[in-house]
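Checked the freezer inventory, then went back to the computational side. Two predictions to log before the end of the day. The first one is the construct we discussed on Monday; recording sequence and tokens without edits.
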Amino acid sequence: MGETTRILISETLHAVVGAAFETRVLDRVVVKGKSRGQAVYELVGEKDGVPPERRDFLRRFSGGVERYFARDWAGALAVFEETLRQAPGDTPSRLYVERCRKLLESPPTGEWDGVTVMRVK
């Protein structure tokens, strides 16, 4: 499995190429100067060129992201710990493990949408 994120694409570009390529959502971000959060994806490869075990990994990871944004941090943590065992060098899995642990220790009060606010472009 590829262990590093090489190509990131926006939600807008994902809408154009998503049918032809395997992707995984990495985060939802608001970039400096914008007000609306947008998904950021990793472009993994052409659909036909991604091995079944990698597609399974991507589906599992996506399920963790869904749980994370649904505020099921314990469930998301379990998923990301598993993906990290499968791919110890997977930085996105490691990042989500850290985020989930922090959120479980200190849950946010009030509204929480999980969007990462980028301070610089």
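The second is the one RB wanted added to the comparison set:
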Amino acid sequence: MGDEGLEPPPKSTANTGFSETGGAESGAVGARMGLSDPDLAAVVNAWPTLPEATRRQVVAMVQQ
């Protein structure tokens, strides 16, 4: 895998189901996505900074 991460969705005039101004003050991805589980939000927020090997390990654990 290359240096890929969460890509922001294209801008749309349609209702997205969440407020662009809501969420964590830091603008955390998990908060903007409306993730209610704090552990899952932490993984989503950290994902872009995780080493590739760690990402592969997490994906492998989830796919078991």
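For RB: Residues 52-63 form the longest helix (12 residues). The two ends are 19 Å apart (CA to CA). Let me know if you want it refolded.
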